[in-house]
Amino acid sequence: MHLRQFQAQRMQAPRDFQAIENQPVCVEIGAGKGKHAVLFGQQQPQSKLYAIERTREKFEAMQKQHQLSNLNNLFPIHADALPWITHALYPAQVEQFFILYPNPEPHNPAQRWLNMPFFEFILSRLQFEGQITLASNIPEYIEEAEQQLKEIWKLPYEKQVIASDSARTHFEVKYLERGELCQQLIIRKPADYTTRFDDFMPLLGQSHAG
Ligand SMILES: C[S@@+](CC[C@H](N)C(=O)[O-])C[C@H]1O[C@@H](n2cnc3c(N)ncnc32)[C@H](O)[C@@H]1O
C-alpha cells in the first residue's frame, strides 16, 4: 500500500489558536472526558500534557475535571488534533503520544490513525526514543496497526495485554467490565528514524492558502 504525503502547509489554523513554547511535552489525542489526562498529570508532575479533544461535551467534561484537580501541568485543548498538532508542535518536541481507544472507523479505514498520511507528521513531532501508546478493544484494529508498523512505518513496537483492573479511561473501564480483551502497542521511534517533516516548523496560526 502506498500513502500520499500529508499536506501540512494546507492545514487551516484551529479556532482561537494559541501557540505553545518549544519545550518537551506529552500529547493525548482524543482524550475524551480526560480521565487519563488527569491521572497522568497527577502521576507525572514533572511532565506537561496537552490533551486534545474535538467533541465539545467531552472537552467540557475534561475541563471540569481539570479545574477540580488543580493541576498546572495539564492543558486541555478543544480542537481537531490534525490542525492543532500541525500549527502548535515543533519537530521532535513530544516525549510521548497517547491514543487510547480511538474510534474504530468501521466504514472509513483510511481514517484510522496508522492508515493516515498524517501519522508521518505525528512521527516527526516525536523525540528520538519517544513512544506512542495506542490502545484498543478491537483485536483487528491492533492487528492492522501492527501490519502498518511493519510494512509502512518500519517502527519497533511491543504488544501488551491490558490488565483487567486497569481503569485509565472511561472507555477502558467500560470494555474491561464487559470482559473484552484490551490491548496496546507501545511504539518506539529509533534514534536514526527520519520523516519528510523533520524540518517542518509549526504554522503557529498562519494559513498558507493555495
Ligand atoms: C472512543 S473515544 C475514546 C475517548 C477516551 N480516549 C477514552 O478512552 O475514554 C474517541 C475520542 O476521540 C475523539 N477524536 C476522534 N478524532 C479526533 C481528532 N481528530 N481530534 C481530536 N479528537 C478526536 C472523539 O471525539 C472521541 O472523544
From TrEMBL:
GO cellular component, alphabetical, reads:
tRNA methyltransferase complex
Q: Which reaction does it catalyse?
A: guanosine(46) in tRNA + S-adenosyl-L-methionine = N(7)-methylguanosine(46) in tRNA + S-adenosyl-L-homocysteine
Pfam families (UniProt xref) = Methyltransf_4
Specify the domain of life of the species encoding this protein: Bacteria
Gene3D superfamilies per the UniProt record, alphabetical: Vaccinia Virus protein VP39
- EC number(s) for this protein? 2.1.1.33
Q: Which UniProt keywords apply?
A: Methyltransferase, S-adenosyl-L-methionine, Transferase, tRNA processing
Q: Does the keyword Transport apply?
A: no
Does the record's keyword annotation contain Transferase?
yes
- A GO term for molecular function: tRNA (guanine(46)-N7)-methyltransferase activity
Query: Which purpose does this protein serve, as stated in its record?
Result: Catalyzes the formation of N(7)-methylguanine at position 46 (m7G46) in tRNA.
Q: PANTHER family from the xrefs?
A: 3-DEOXY-D-MANNO-OCTULOSONIC-ACID TRANSFERASE/TRNA GUANINE-N 7 - -METHYLTRANSFERASE (PTHR23417), PENTACOTRIPEPTIDE-REPEAT REGION OF PRORP DOMAIN-CONTAINING PROTEIN (PTHR23417:SF14)
How is this protein named in the record? tRNA (guanine(46)-N(7))-methyltransferase
